[in-house]
Each structure stands twice: as structure tokens, then as C-alpha cells.
Specification:
The complex is a heterodimer of chains A (384) and B (277). Chain A has 384 residues and is α/β, with parallel strands linked by helices. Chain A contains 13 helices and 15 strands. In chain B, helix 6 links the parallel strand 7 and strand 8. Classes of the chains: A alpha/beta (384), B alpha/beta (277).
């Protein structure tokens, strides 16, 4: 019996399962995780499918060891993933910082759920939007994608692996219980139609003393283990060769800035937005599940003869401030929609202010998706 | 004049020119035991991946060993090592870290990987104190000792680390003090030649922190204490708990065959992919 990595076809599929299938299509060989609602279906699917294609899923003792194990496996050259929800991310944050600091490709799926602490595990609330950017200590840059459909759970997971490999960094999928548990049409393309990116490695047989395996703004080759590179990998402040330096603040400055610049200087290769805002007087800015309600509200508003467009953030981090600023220059009013109490709103407002009048529409009830009718009322209000 | 080079120097990373160890530290004895074991088995640094956590003993492989080394977050080296073993099952994965790293903050990973009997070697340097941060009580600090965080004396029962790891299911557990460098080397060699979770506790002197707290402060005196108060596991069986107070029970405490996780995963993959055995 042979089990292909990619099973092309048209499916009626749950978002979380599409995510797991996307991971395997992207070349994931090792995943580790801890059961948590509403992300568990990803682990279940990976546990079933990974061994069929030569990989493995390990259920760990907690989320701390889950992220540690995938980072360890990534250093052996494997493509790796963990999937969890907010409480799991809270536990992982220190080791996410580690992965960033030693430039480890890995994909972290956060199927977000309701409220701080244990909250309501089955409610879809994107409550961790800034946590992934600011939750681990110190200054850093991260990549995070916001799928809005089961199809994007597949597509964005493949993209996340490719970005992780290209920029040698952890990449987040910021889904939520709505998108994770939503069932919808998912088209899985033929294997040759799926773009696969692999990390850059040092030349085989390279002199270990001369490998500059870290801190290159254009991404250093990764001196993975088991190839004779004799890599010294430490999350302590280090130089391009991986050599620890705990005495010189100039080395610290270089360590922090080069890691940040590796992402910031390549924003044009990372940031994706979807926009239908040409000439619109009012622009609805949203991401994830809420963007579906925003799109519906924009259609209805146009039927009423109102000039309404949309801007959807596919990339939440690095933050698409240039794209927002550009949109705000032509819009008169900007309405920010989030299914939380305004986590990205301050960032969006900062980018759009001075150009347009920016307001925020919270959900009527946290845990419900915005009713397009409520959005329409808000549009009429800002136009009156 | 030709320079005299230590025979094990070839294992040291060329960019390393000094040590961070305090005078009298037991790290050097443990490091030499590891390197001698490799040398005597004709193994090379390329046969290994080393993983360490945070603390003085974590700096034995990082940066000193000229090998693939992952220096991780506090308490987590075994969890990182598990992922490395999954990706490189043919390599010997060795964790070198301290009692605070492995049994306090990292205790969960220690017991679960002992239970899994995953093929790796864990060398735990137990100095009974937090050395790097300046002499705070550890889960291994003897009851009553005054430390910087227990200025009136500790009020907690200490761990017997080896007994903890045995109870968790490890298939090989040995304990030695730094005074028994040769038997320690021999146990490390055994660990390098077998499959399964091999745990070696090295009771080691920290004269600067632990020693000062007990009023010694002398590495020689601490090692003399190890010499005079070490007792073999076999002899210890005949003594009462009271008689064992202040003694170091040393030897190979467990060596048994148990299902090893990497091999079990291979079998599981064959079942999953429908391949014939």
C-alpha cells in the first residue's frame, strides 16, 4: 500500500483537517503537540497520516516540550509543526523566543479560542493576535497568517512552511475555532502545482570554523546537525558563527537588530493583503472569520448605493502598515472589524490616522461573528 | 619549545580558549569522564549531538565540545533532545545539565522521557545548589541548609534524583561522585553502547556556592567527604535509613532491557504504512 503526501481533489473538509493535510503536502515530517480544544483535530489527523508517509506525530507531556521537540527536530533538517490554542501558546512562548533567537524554521498553528485563561474553548475568538508578536520577551519580529476559510487553512499552512524555510523563523497560523471547525469546499491541487521551498544549507564539507550560520539579514545557511558542521547553537547572544558573547553590548545590538531586520527588510516578500477598496469612501478592515461578514456587508452596502470597500489582512505580522496607509489615503472613513475588543485596532489606527477617520466595531457579543446588518448600520452611521 | 597538548584536547572546539568554571569545580572531572569514554570507545564528536540547558554544567558541551551542540532554555534540554533523536535516530544524543535544570524546572521532561525509555544519555551534575545565580536552594539541597533564598535554613525534603528516575521507568541509572572518576567513565561508556534512556547522576562539588554554605569552601575537603562517605548500592541495602544519612549511595543502580521508543516508533510506522514485518 502506498500513501501519497498529496491527495488532490475537491473535498468537503473541516478547516483543521485541511491544515493537517496542508502540512503534509508542504513536506512536514515531524509534529508534536498536546491535546487542546479547538485544535485537536489537527493532531489527530497528523497522528494518522504522518506515519503513513514516513513521519511521526508525538503526543508530548505539555506544550513546552511540544515546541522544544519540534525545534530540536528542525535542527536535524526536518520540516516541523505544532498545533495548539491560546493556553498552549502561553506555555510555548519562551521556546518560541528560542526558535526565533537561533533561527529555526517551524510552523505553529494557533486555533484561537475564547477569553483569557481557560475561557470558553469552543468559542472562536481571535484573542491572541498581539500575543504572538509581543508575548515572548525581548524585541523580535514574527510572521503570522490569518486564514479565513478551510481552503486557506490548507493554502496558508503550505505558505507558512515555505516562509519558515525561506526566512529560518517560526511562522504562525492565527486561525480560530470558527475557521478551524468550519466545513467547506477545499480543493487540494496536484502535487506539482504546490510550491515547496527548502531552507538553504552550508556547502557539504564546509570548514566548520568558517560557516557563518547565523545573523544574516538575508538569511544565513542553516548548519543543521548530523552533517559534520559542528554547529554551536545557543540562544545566548552570539555572533555570525554562533559564538557566545555575553560581554559586549554591541554584539547584543547586532543580535537583536539582525534578527528583526531579517523579517522587516523582506516585508515585500512576506506581507499579503486582499483589497477591494478602489475609490471606496468607506473601507472595512478585517481579517480571519470576521472578514467574511465584512465582505457580505460590503456587497449589501453597494446594493444600497453606498461606496464601501474592504481590506483583508492575510498577514498580521509583520504588520502591513504600508498597505493600510495607502488604503487610508484614498478612503474617507475606515471601520476596523475584529472579533475581539480591538487587538490590532491600535496598530491599524496608527497606520491609517491622519489620512482617514478610523473607528472600531467590536462584536455585539464576544464569540459571535459580526452580523452583516450591524456592520451596515455602522457604515450608515459613519457616513451620516 | 613544543607545547604540551592534552590528549583529549582534540575534542575541544578550536575557538574555545578558556573555561568559565570556578577553581575547584567538578565540571572538569565530569567533562573528562565523558571525553575519556568517547576516546576509549574510539567514538568521534560526529557520532554525537549534545544538548544542554541553563546552568554551570550546561556549559560543558556548550561551547567546549567540538560537535553539534544545542544550548537550550532552562529545564528543557531533554525535550529538545527528543526532537533531535527523532530526526537523527542513528546519532548518540547526550544531554549534560544540572540538578536544578533537570529536576526543578525540567522535572516533567525528565520523568516522561525516562518513562518513554527513549534512546539518549542524560548526565546530571548534581551539586545540590544553584551555582550560576549565586547559591540558591535547589530541590536537591539537604534539609536545613542556609542558602541565599533560605537564610533560615531549607524546610523542604530533597529529591533523590536517581530513585526518581528509576521510579519513572529509566532502563539504565548510575550514580557516582566526582571522586569515582574511573567508575563514572565506565558507566558513561556503558550508556554510550546501549539503547534506551541512560541516566547518570554525578554528585559534584561546588566549593564556591555549596561548599561555602556548608562551611567547607574547599573542593579537596568536599571530595574527601565523597571518598569517605560513598557506599555501594549493595552495601547500602544492609543499612537503615538513619545509617544512610550523609552517605552517597553509588554504583549502577538499574540496567535492564525495556521497549525503547525509537524502535517502537519504527514498528508503529510499519503498521501504519501497511508494510510487512
Amino acid at each position: 500500500m502506498t500513501f501519497p503526501r498529496v491527495r488532490p481533489g475537491k473535498y468537503f473538509m473541516m478547516g483543521n483537517l485541511a491544515c493537517a493535510d496542508g502540512a503534509i503536502a508542504a513536506g512536514c515530517e515531524f509534529a508534536a503537540g498536546y491535546p487542546i480544544t479547538p485544535a485537536t483535530e489537527i493532531a489527530n489527523r497528523l497522528a494518522e497520516r504522518l506515519p503513513q508517509v514516513g513521519g511521526v506525530f508525538l503526543q508530548m507531556e505539555d506544550e513546552i516540550s511540544s515546541i522544544a521537540a519540534i525545534v530540536g527536530a528542525s535542527w536535524t533538517g526536518k520540516k516541523v509543526l505544532t498545533a495548539t490554542s491560546g493556553p498552549g501558546i502561553s506555555l510555548m512562548l519562551e521556546n518560541i523566543g528560542f526558535a526565533l533567537g537561533v533561527e529555526t524554521p517551524c510552523v505553529i498553528i494557533n486555533v484561537q479560542r475564547g477569553a483569557p485563561t481557560t475561557g470558553m474553548p469552543t468559542a472562536g475568538v481571535p484573542g491572541d493576535m498581539v500575543q504572538v508578536k509581543r508575548g515572548s520577551h525581548g524585541d523580535y519580529e514574527i510572521i503570522a497568517l490569518c486564514p479565513a476559510s478551510p481552503q486557506e487553512m490548507f493554502d496558508h499552512t503550505v505558505l507558512a512552511f515555505n516562509l519558515a524555510e525561506k526566512f529560518r523563523t517560526p511562522v504562525f497560523i492565527l486561525s480560530d475555532a470558527f475557521i478551524g471547525h468550519m466545513r467547506e469546499e477545499v480543493i487540494i491541487p496536484e502535487v506539482e502545482k504546490i510550491e515547496i521551498v527548502n531552507r538553504k544549507l552550508p556547502e557539504p564539507g564546509a570548514d566548520p570554523q568558517k560557516i557563518r550560520g547565523f545573523l544574516d539579514e538575508n538569511v544565513a545557511p542553516m548548519p543543521i546537525f548530523g552533517r559534520g558542521f559542528k554547529a554551536h547553537v545557543t540562544s545566548s547572544c552570539h555572533d555570525e558563527y554562533g559564538k557566545r558573547n555575553l560581554a559586549d553590548v554591541a554584539a547584543l545590538d547586532h543580535f537583536v537588530r539582525s534578527l528583526c531586520n531579517k523579517i522587516l527588510r523582506h516585508k515585500d516578500e512576506i506581507v499579503l493583503v486582499e483589497k477591494q477598496d478602489e475609490g471606496a469612501e468607506v473601507v472595512l478592515v478585517s481579517y480571519g472569520a470576521v472578514s467574511r461578514a465584512a465582505a457580505m456587508a460590503a456587497v449589501r452596502a453597494k446594493e444600497e448605493g453606498l461606496s464601501v470597500g474592504t481590506l483583508r489582512l492575510i498577514t498580521a505580522w509583520p504588520f502591513p502598515n504600508e498597505e493600510i496607509e495607502k488604503m487610508a489615503k484614498s478612503a474617507r472613513k475606515v471601520i476596523v472589524l475584529e472579533n475581539n475588543l480591538g487587538q490590532l485596532f491600535p496598530y491599524i489606527k496608527a497606520a491609517a490616522d491622519c489620512q482617514a477617520e478610523v473607528s472600531f466595531l467590536p462584536p455585539r457579543v464576544i464569540g459571535e461573528i459580526h452580523d452583516p446588518e450591524t456592520i451596515l448600520e455602522k457604515i450608515r452611521e459613519v457616513l451620516s | 619549545m613544543s607545547a604540551v597538548v592534552h590528549p583529549l584536547h582534540r575534542f575541544i572546539r578550536p575557538s574555545v580558549t578558556g573555561t568559565t568554571n570556578c577553581p575547584g569545580c567538578g565540571n572538569g572531572i565530569a567533562a573528562q569522564a565523558i571525553l575519556r569514554a568517547m576516546d576509549e570507545l574510539s567514538l568521534t564528536m560526529d557520532d554525537f549531538v549534545f544538548v544542554s540547558g541553563i546552568g554551570c554544567s550546561a556549559w560543558i558541551p556548550s561551547p567546549s565540545f567540538n560537535a553539534d551542540v544545542l544550548h537550550t532554555t532552562h529545564g528543557r534540554p531533554i525535550a529538545f533532545a527528543l526532537g533531535i533523536k527523532m530526526g537523527l535516530p542513528e546519532k548518540k544524543v547526550m544531554v549534560v545539565s544540572g540538578d536544578g535544570d533537570l529536576t526543578a524546572i525540567g522535572g516533567n521532561h525528565l520523568i516522561h522521557n525516562a518513562r518513554r525509555n527513549v534512546d539518549m544519555i542524560v548526565i546530571c551534575l548534581n551539586n545540590g545548589i544553584y551555582g550560576m545565580t549565586g547559591g540558591q536552594a535547589a530541590p536537591t539541597t539537604p534539609m536545613g541548609l542556609k542558602t541565599t533564598t533560605t537564610p533560615y535554613g531549607t524546610f523542604e525534603n530533597p529529591f533523590d534524583i536517581s530513585r526518581l528516575v528509576i521510579a519513572a521507568g529509566a532502563s539504565f541509572v548510575a550514580r557516582w561522585t566526582t571522586h569515582q572518576a574511573r567508575p563514572l567513565t565506565s558507566s558513561i561508556k556503558k550508556a554510550m553502547q546501549r539503547k534506551g534512556f541512560s541516566f547518570i547522576e554525578v554528585i559534584t562539588q561546588c566549593p564556591v556556592q555549596f561548599g561555602k554554605k556548608t562551611g567547607s569552601g574547599s573542593a579537596v575537603q568536599m571530595m574527601r567527604d565523597y571518598k569517605e562517605n560513598s557506599i555501594s548500592a549493595k552495601d547500602a541495602e544492609k543499612l537503615s535509613a538513619k545509617e544512610l544519612q550523609g552517605k552517597f549511595v553509588v554504583g549502577e543502580l538499574v540496567n535492564k532491557d525495556l521497549p525503547e521508543m525509537v524502535e517502537e516508533i519504527q514498528k508503529m510506522k510499519q503498521r501504519a504504512s501497511g508494510a510487512k514485518k
